[in-house]
Amino acid sequence: MAALPYIQLYVADYLSDTMHLSVKEHGAYLLIIMNYWQTGKPIRPERIPLITRMSEAEWQEIEPTIKEFFEVNNDGHWSHFRIDEDLRAVLAKSEKSRRAGIKSGKKRRLQAIEKQSKTNERSTDVQLEFEPQTNHTDTNTNTEANTEGKAYPKTPEKKNNVPYQKIVDLYHKKLPDNPRIASLSATRKSHIKARWKNEIKSLESWEKYFTLVSTSDFLTGKTQPSPGRKTFTAGIDFLINQTNVIKIIERQYHD
């Protein structure tokens, strides 16, 4: 796979997950995930000290902390679930754009041939008449209003008064086997507030949302993991991330 010229870094999520890291650990972790993004495949453990520019002794000191962010398969190679998901999404989008480009190119070539053919049929002494364009009409649709608005209608609760604890209570009630929430950090509140404002605008909608999550084997840890990987169970941080919320509403995590 060709290296991508950029990396998707969700700053709020990164800072929330890595608040306990030292400066040295931050540097090592960022270098590793950048390398992982470019290569798109699990990393051999013996390469990691080279990637982090550390000696064996320096790497062994911080390895246990950094290892918590990765999964180790049967071959001992390190893999990263979040980056794997993002890479699949980026590559799928790229392939879709490539196919659309090929189709659009063929259409333009056919239009050019047809136009040239019509031009050749005209006499050079006759003034050309206006030819209406054959391009498609742009149909701008408000997908957010049409899909998410219908799925989770707004109810009369005050928009700016976010009931954080009630939302947490619904999470615990509907998803008793998912990771428990010990505290509501500022970052978590920020994500919940954003979802309340944009996608899930009432307690009724949050209840429906968590109920939808509960019907996904993947999100509730019931899916058998691939060899060498740990079972994944979605926690609150995963479920309040905007990208994941949209995927869940679209049932992309349902069989």
Principal-axis shape equals globular
Q: What is the succession of H and E elements? A: HHHHEEHHHHHHH
What's the total helix number? 11
Count of domains? 2
Question: What fraction, in percent, of the residue positions are helical?
Answer: 40-55%
- The total count of strands amounts to 2
What does this structure look like?
By secondary structure, this protein is mainly alpha-helical. The protein has 2 domains: 1-113, Arc Repressor Mutant, subunit A, CATH 1.10.10; 144-249, no CATH class. The chain contains 11 helices and 2 strands. Strands 1-2 form a two-stranded antiparallel sheet.
Q: How do the helices and strands line up, and which of them pair or pack?
A:
Layout: H1 11-17, H2 23-39, H3 48-52, H4 56-67, E1 71-72, E2 78-79, H5 81-121, H6 143-151, H7 164-174, H8 186-198, H9 203-214, H10 236-239, H11 242-249
Antiparallel strand pairs: 1-2
Helix pairs in contact: 7-9
What brief labels describe this structure?
two-stranded antiparallel sheet, Arc Repressor Mutant, subunit A, 255 residues, single chain, 2% strand, 55% helix, 2 strands, 2 domains
State the gist of this model.
The chain is an all-alpha fold and 255 residues long. It is built from eleven helices and two strands.
